[in-house]
Addiction module protein
Amino acid sequence: MNILLSELEKMAVALPADERARLAEVLLQSLQAAPIAEVEAAWNQEIAERLAAFERDEANALAAESVFAEARLLAK
């Protein structure tokens, strides 16, 4: 463990409970933010690829009316 991290840990443990809780919350949110950004970037890439395929007329697109009609038949 590096010295800075060790010092940060000592300082964090010395904080009052409410401030430690807030620090924990901030740290947890920082860990969760990266995967969300990565997922959003992956979805944006997927959307761009699907749109490009649709515009090149390479997508297997179906009319919404056909999809809903088939869904109604299957639901019976």
